[in-house]
Amino acid sequence: MKNTDVLHLFEKHVDNIKSSGTNQWVGNCPFPNHPDRKASFCFNSEHGLYNCKGCGEEGNAIKFAKAMGENPEPFYSDDYQATKVIGGKTYYHALKETKKEVKVDKLLKIMNDKFVKKLPKELDNRIHSVNGVGMDDGCLTYPYFDADGNIDGIKRHKPKAKSWGNMKKRWYGIWHIGHASRETLIITEGEKDVCTLKEAQFGAVVSGSGGSNTIPPIPPVFKEFKEIIILYDNDEAGRKGAVKMADTIYKSLGVLPHIAEWWYGLPKGFDCSDDYEQNPKLEETYSAIGNAKRYDPMKSDIPLSNELNGDNLKTINEGMKPMSYKEFMSESWHVEVPIVDNIVTENSLTTIGGDSGIGKSWLGMNLAMCISSGKKFLDHFPTKERRVLLAQFELTNGQVMKRLDILKPKYFMQRELIQKNLEILPKAESFQDQWKPLYDLLDNGSYKNGVVIVDNLYTSVGVDVDTSKNQDLIPVINKIDEIMMKYKVAVVLITHHKKGTKEAPIQMDDILGGATITRWSSNIFQMKNSQVDNDLRVGKITKIRDEVCELYDKPFKIRFEEGYFIKGEIIDKEVAHYVEPSERWERKLIEDMRHYGEFSKKDKWDRDWLWSFLSDHQKWDKTPSNEKKVSRFLNRVIAWGFVEKLTHNTYTLVEIDA
Question: Would the pLDDT of 305 be above 80?
Fold first, then answer.
């Protein structure tokens, strides 16, 4: 291996090369994951060894040639031995690299014969089936794989930590990334957490091989993900390590990751593996991910590098500081107030959930028209006038227009305020992520302290998101959080109830999306169909913050009249509204008509004749509301085959066989 050949190899790929001694050179690191401006890259033109003090890349001329797409053959030499040159570390040339291939086979045999067979049964599902993890001397033992799928390193976990093979600053689980969607990348603190989340069907999950304080070089593939969430342990080391990881990713890729936040009441050191052992549904993990906050370099306790932050950016010393009680209480903090009492609060998330076909879209339109005009919601809940943006993704634009037109008479007195304060985002023609247009509309700041209503969750996120999986909703929650914080608006998210919940009393857990949605919501309002009456709904407020609410967790009636909702009295026996009655009131009324002598004598009758029966024998008052009820009654019993319409306003009872 000639000195000139080695120098020529590095000169082709290293910028700003300068001599730093005999056969010693420095320059800008050529590796793509390290935008180096400090000449951190060192190499030796005699031995071909290199080392980057910035990103940690190191090796010999053979490895460098392969990494840069060059032919490595000119740099092989059988008599080239191990040489200790850079930073007190030992590097190997071709002879050692050839022997390394033999070692891979030995490692594979060690894993099969010694470790995997000793894995505890209770961990078999979660770990061995995912990554071939084993057990040695009472410690979990993790294999690391090379690009060809061969084991080239093994790490034995503490308390008797030990490693074999290639274990220098590596990413555990990165071999799965090629098959994962590019939605969300989760970075955990250890290998066991990676295995746990992979078993729980998370897509892309990795961890560094050195725990929370050691960070491997950041791979460029990380930048392909829409979102990176760092999920470290619930302790001080985990929190500091997460910030350090986020800062490194930001400096390497220019991407701002999110840092998950565990619930404050969890034990010290709690992680997703602990969560799995207590509850395989991983509710605390989903909650921590759902509460993830975007990393802010301006508030980091790790100063940004000079080339990234410039001279005018703040460090932690100029950002958020602890405040004394007196200082904190003397600040003019904004105190959020209710917009709709018990339902919608400023700068907060409200979730409205309900069964399919219950009228959730009608309810969303009523809410939009009430908030934009200051009219009481459901004719009951005091409402403040605010600007409203209704993002109606459920119905076609024509259906939205038709329904708003039906509601006009109910809001006739508020029409001018509605025209002034309510805007509607038309539905896109294709099924896609609908959230992006919201950012453009909110950018001008005209909705500050107003409300954004999104109807509904499923149709807003596109076909690639499964709203029944909590982890798929994490990007949606982060979008909502960003919208609320950046634009100072409240968000109302309309969503469905889970399947199989129609016949039980309303519970917060009925919400599709589970803890990811409910933990993040400040207010939750839910509604179900009543089997007692087709025009009756059961409503319930199942979550509220910072307000006195006499209706909290108490079911109450809601009347539904041609798209308009009116609150009624509370319900004593909620479950009775979800049990199919043995005899519907319409059918009972038909039977009463059959036994009414005047009906039995007439082959034909009209509405006036029907009203005489209803007034005399059913004690109905002929009010506008009951007039509409009669129309719906006739439509239903005709459809059910109990009544036949002969001509306009002429009907007859149909004989039914027993």
Answer: no
Give the DSSP H/E element, type plus range, for residue 589. helix 585-594
Based on the number of CB atoms within 10 Å of its own CB, is 624 exposed (0-12), middle (13-18) or buried (19 or more)?
exposed
> What are the structure tokens assigned to 137, written together?
């001397």
Q: Give the Cα separation of 25 and 493 in Å (integer).
A: 59
318 has pLDDT over 80: no
Element (H, E) at 288: helix 283-290
Listed residue (514, 484, 472) closest to 496, CA to CA: 514
Residue 123 has pLDDT above 50, yes or no: no
Name the class of domain 338-577: alpha beta
Phi and psi for 507 in degrees, rounded to 5? -130, 155
Position 71 scores a pLDDT of: 80
Q: Cβ(220)–Cβ(250) under 8 Å? A: no
- Enter the tokens of residue 353: 């959930």
Main-chain phi, psi angles of 85, to 5 degrees:
-130, -55
Which pLDDT score is estimated for 491?
A: 95
pLDDT value at 313 more than 60: no
- C-beta separation of 212 from 242 below 8 A: yes
Which region holds residue 214: left if phi is over 0, alpha if psi is between -120 and 50, else beta?
beta
HSE-CB of 181 using CA atoms within 13 angstroms: 12
Q: What average pLDDT does the segment 423-446 reach?
A: 73
At residue 517, what are phi and psi to the nearest 5 degrees?
-85, -50
Q: Over the stretch 611-653, which tens digit does the pLDDT of each residue have? A: 988 988 888 888 888 888 888 889 888 877 888 888 888 998 8
The CA distances from residue 91 to 44, 165, 242, 368, 492, in Å, are: 12, 14, 31, 68, 60
Chain centroid to CA 88: how far? Answer: 46
The CATH architecture one would assign to domain 102-309 is 3-Layer(aba) Sandwich (3.40)
Angle at Cα 630 formed by Cα 625 and Cα 631, nearest 5°? Answer: 100
CA dist 455 and 350 (Å) reads 12
392/454 Cα distance (integer angstroms): 6
pLDDT score, position 2: 57
> How wide is the angle at C-alpha 67 spanned by C-alphas 65 and 70, nearest 5°?
40
Q: Report pTM.
A: 0.50
Q: Do you find a cis peptide bond into 159, omega within 30 degrees of 0?
A: yes
pLDDT for 78 beyond 60: no
Fold that domain 3-92 belongs to in CATH? DNA Primase; Chain A (3.90.580)
Whether 186 and 197 have beta carbons less than 8 Å apart is answered as yes
Contacting residues for 467 by C-beta, under 8 A, at least 6 apart: 457, 458, 461, 473, 495, 496, 512, 513
Q: What angle do CA 129, 226, 292 make, to 5 degrees?
A: 80
How would you classify the pairing of strands 184-188 and 227-231? parallel
